[in-house]
Amino acid sequence: MEITAEMIKELRAATSAGMLDCRKALQEADGDFQKAVDYLREKGMATAAKRADRDASNGTVELYSHGGGRVGVMVEVNCETDFVARSEQFRSLAHEIALQIAANAPKYVKAEDIPATELEHEAEIARARAKEEGKPDKMMDKIVEGRLEKFKDEVTLLRQAYIRDENLTIEKLVMQNVAAIGENVIIRRFQRWELGEGTNQE
Q1: What is the pLDDT of residues 131-175, one digit of tens each?
Q2: Closest residue by Cα to residue 42 from 29, 30, 56, 55
Q3: Which domains does the chain have, with CATH numbers?
């Protein structure tokens, strides 16, 4: 299939990849737009993974207030250089991450941050629930494991589905930006406050 300049332009607009990369992706995908996007994403992920061990000590602290001041979020997102820290793409990513935290209220950045005691507690709840539902004993471990993974998806920012695209996790969103920006990007820490939380309401 002939790869036209129009097809390359369209793919470039959708992925922010370079012209030559877009042409190669379309050739590899035999002109199939979606396959070409997937090809570029995978290529980007591989590049991003290589950058993951590079030092990221620049960045921004993004502040976001939602619902007329009912929810407040502060998130620190790091990158390697001050130049990237000031770029629109990086700032936009930091803002999207703050929106995600406001909307989905994660408790941890990554799954490894969840305390073992909390995971044990969740496993006990999952086991008790499975027993209550009359699930067979031989299936118990598998059921508990499945529910624990679901719990991690809910409370971990990087594992949450992106609010603007359910097919994308926050980790993949960050990886895509790493591939486009060309620098390591790390979500260092965040804090989320909700009006009235922690007060004793009778």
Answers
A1: 888 888 888 889 999 999 999 999 999 999 999 999 999 999 998
A2: 29
A3: 5-51 (1.10.8.10), 58-110+156-194 (3.30.479.20), 115-154 (1.10.286)
